[in-house]
Amino acid sequence: MTNAITLTDITRSYGSTRIIAPTSIDVESGQFVSLLGPSGCGKSTILSMVAGLDHASTGDVTVDGRPAVVFQDHALLPWLTARGNIEFGLRSTRPDLSAQERREIADRHLAAVGLAHAAERRPARLSGGMQQRVGIARAFAVEPEILLLDEPFGALDALTRRDLQLELLSLWEADRRTVVMVTHDVDEAILLSDRILVMSPSPDATVIADISVDLPRPRAGVDPDPELRRHLLDLLHP
After folding, report:
1. What is the mean pLDDT of each run of 10 residues along the chain (238 residues)?
2. What pLDDT does 204 receive?
3. What is the distance between the alpha carbons of residues 65 and 57, in angstroms, rounded to a whole number?
4. What is the pLDDT of residues 159-209, one digit of tens each?
5. Could you give all domains of the chain from N- to C-terminal order, each with its CATH number?
6. Gap between the Cα atoms of 22 and 56, Å rounded
7. Cα 29 to Cα 13: distance, rounded to the nearest angstrom
8. What is the end-to-end Cα distance of the chain in Å, rounded?
9. What pTM, to 2 d.p., does this model score?
10. Which residues of 82-112 are buried (b: 16+ CB within 10 A; e: fewer)?
């Protein structure tokens, strides 16, 4: 299998402080990989490097494909409807589509995240969970080769978070795009991931463990692995 993302001995410094020590990461095409670690360890910085929004101070970043990013704050345009936000993304990334094709794609992805009834609502009339659903639908609609998720469910209540995790899994399992997700949540990482990369605290943070998650898919209703959970918590809190 080919690598969609390769980071080779990357570092990131701000002034005299080195946030990320030399770190190498390979992500295979079609894998779901989570970056798990304490706040400030550089997880989101690594994601930004892959997205092209930041750069490594030293080392190389190679990305084979077009990424799309889903942030925690969903970043919807407030003057557009739910459908309009998805169509706006399609206009810039898939300019070959007709207006009718954009509408059909937007409606299909809204239906996939349970928001067909809210297509004409603007963000102010959507709950936080619904807004995040639109953000996820928008990311999948542009058909990126790589999906980057920066704590996409961090601001949601526990029930909404679980519902969206399962919806994300359903969307991902349909076409197995390459996904890299930043999270603080051990249970979320276990539920969603093929691999979990655990990072040490900053400064000089780096990947200290690369752990495969061997739970069967699909995972809705699958019991978590308590031994794996304990191992991850021990790594995070030595």
Report:
1. 92 95 96 94 94 95 91 84 94 91 95 92 92 89 91 79 84 90 92 95 95 86 83 91
2. 95
3. 22
4. 778 888 888 888 888 889 999 999 989 999 999 999 999 999 999 999 999
5. 1-65+146-152+176-238 (3.40.50.300), 71-144 (no CATH)
6. 10
7. 29
8. 34
9. 0.89
10. bbbbbbbbbeeeeeeeeeeebbebbbebbeb
Tell me the pairing of strands 32-36 and 195-199: parallel
At 1 the pLDDT is: 67
Residue 61, exposed/middle/buried by CB under 10 A (0-12, 13-18, 19+)?
middle
Q: Is the dihedral of CA 15, 20, 23, 28 positive or negative?
A: negative
- HEC profile for the chain? CCEEEEEEEEEEEECCEEEEEEEEEEEECCCEEEEECCCCCCHHHHHHHHHCCCCCCEEEEEECCCEEEEECCCCCCCCCCHHHHHHHHHHHHCCCCCHHHHHHHHHHHHHHCCCHHHCCCCHHHCCHHHHHHHHHHHHHHCCCCEEEEECCCCCCCHHHHHHHHHHHHHHHHHHCCEEEEEECCHHHHHHHCCEEEEECCCCCECEEEEEECCCCCCCCCCCCCHHHHHHHHHHHCC
